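Obj.: predict assembly geometry.
Materials: sequence records (below).
Method: joint structure prediction, all chains together.
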Amino acid sequence: MTHELSILDAHPLGSGPIDRSKLVECIQSCFDCAQTCAGCADVCLSEEAAAELTKCIHATLDCFDICAATGKILSRNGSINGDITRAVLQACRTACKTCAEECGPQGFTRRHCAVCAGACRRCEQTCNTLLASLAQ
Amino acid sequence: MTHELSILDAHPLGSGPIDRSKLVECIQSCFDCAQTCAGCADVCLSEEAAAELTKCIHATLDCFDICAATGKILSRNGSINGDITRAVLQACRTACKTCAEECGPQGFTRRHCAVCAGACRRCEQTCNTLLASLAQ
Amino acid sequence: MTHELSILDAHPLGSGPIDRSKLVECIQSCFDCAQTCAGCADVCLSEEAAAELTKCIHATLDCFDICAATGKILSRNGSINGDITRAVLQACRTACKTCAEECGPQGFTRRHCAVCAGACRRCEQTCNTLLASLAQ
Amino acid sequence: MTHELSILDAHPLGSGPIDRSKLVECIQSCFDCAQTCAGCADVCLSEEAAAELTKCIHATLDCFDICAATGKILSRNGSINGDITRAVLQACRTACKTCAEECGPQGFTRRHCAVCAGACRRCEQTCNTLLASLAQ
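Observations (raw structure tokens):
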């Protein structure tokens, strides 16, 4: 995402106490996970077995919302408010973890769920990494 | 919001372990707070002193995103996933608290900030109440 | 929504060429419709017949997204940009109309779909009214 | 965005009458534009001249909301509803065009605005291309 990097480079305040490369990675994985969750929910809904996948669909819908909000809040680099950033990152990693746990087992027979679980795990990890760097 | 109540009443699963009236109150205060934050950010941006209000504007933009995501996730009543619900409620009350602290002092001279701080405080409180009922 | 009115009353620019009461009504019906759609999608997903309701669920998910974006953009009263406002209102009324057409027939046997179709029709109408007042 | 492609490849219904590569390109440019707008609004807000940039900030905030909603609706590939898809793509290209026109002139002295105008122009174009392919 060249744009995101360019935008951050152009920021007059810099990213303050935040590690810039970890921030960019986290923003990207949030939007990537959101997109994948939206797609996964849609594919699950289109399956004949949709009724069996209810918990999985609910988790991806929730995960989408939290990831999109987190990606957006983190994109407001200059606004980094310690408390809000930390709180939303914690919510995001919980949603990603839960969604990966719901989608993962479906992934043995459904490729889209395997893809989604992978995106969730990666997003969970980048949230954790950014949280750890904030705590220092 | 008659609609929201009707939708919940019509739910085949009920709201499970969640206290229905606390849930409805929290959903309403989340959307109400989101709406108020969007309006407050806009009024602040339109003031000549916009540059002085940067922290306040940032907080309202962040608070909008979290409140809207929380209101939406809670509206998916059947999907109540304990972990995700708790995580997003915690993030929401933190954002509301922070936003109220930013807007509150501006409220002495700016009515829209006073209105916004009030909506944030109410939303923070309903999140806390719902969280407490979930913990039982 | 006392808050929304207070925020608009406090706006230094007023709502410009826009009819204030029509604007407030439209903002409220957008957020109300969004909330109702989120609830309806959730109830449909929780039914055993979820697979038969796929088109209905998709419409409510789409309608939610457009209504929420429209409500938010309209809440930025000071920013009223004629072209963007018009474009998003047109998209919103189309989504509401489509969603009402999907949910309406289900409403004979599903109360939540009847509630949702009603909220969509009201939102479609307030979008039309606001659009007509903008065109003058 | 390998994920998005994988999700679409895994879709049981395919993308129906929609050109898959144009769809993927449009989804990506919507999320990319949303992200860039969020960043641009934040940088503008952090500048001392924030009050002069009000129109630009408003346009980027609006453009973010529409692009994010459009990217999400398009990601629900199986749900492609002709009317809603067309309506939201039309709103998106209008918002991108307007935002590019606001940010473009600032781009001579502000690199972030130049980056943002570029992302908006690309998104406007992919919306147009997808709309044209839908009309066939």
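Conclusions so far: The two ends of chain B are 27 Å apart (CA to CA).
To do: check interface contacts against the pulldown list.
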